[in-house]
Amino acid sequence: MTSVSPAGAIPPRQARSRAALERLLSAAQEVLVTRGFDEFTIAAVAEKAGVSVGGVYRRFTGKDQLLETVLDRALDDLQSTVSAALATPTPDLAGAVSAFAGALADYLGRTGPLYTAALTASRRPDKRDRALAVLTGLQRVFFDAALPHAAEITHPAPSTALNTALRTIIGAGVHRAATAPLWPDGLGWEQWASEMAEMATGYLTRS
To answer: DNA-binding region at which residues (predicted)?
Structure first.
């Protein structure tokens, strides 16, 4: 995972300091995922990380900067998870779609509604641009994996079909992560990924 420093801050240079920051951010992410925004406090993060409240404030100006850094880290995690899953060429189109859906499911299964929060928590233009840049990166990775198998796509507009499949998988995954506590579908993330991949592949290769 890419090391993330507090937004606007200079990354720590010493290995021990970087490791301490990563532990703190991991604790903050766990608090956010398991307890939600209402219980995301400096005190809760400090307790989870095993540090003092003052120790958190020595690295972050407050809750908002800590939250912003956690969400930036989550976006990096998403991009690296999907990129790693599709780094090895797949034997066919179904394999590419399945690898993408599986990587997204793996990420969302670990982070819950965190990615939804990363997209919606800030209204600042630079944060919207950051989230959109990650989405564009996911699109590029997916296209790079799928286009070598373009001959399998029977849709009359292959690029349009791939883009629609991509957006459908991402949109469904984010919606599922956000609504699962209130509207469970009875599926595990692995099964969800399999169902989504089968549906998307069927759309791309429809006769």
So the answer is: 41-60
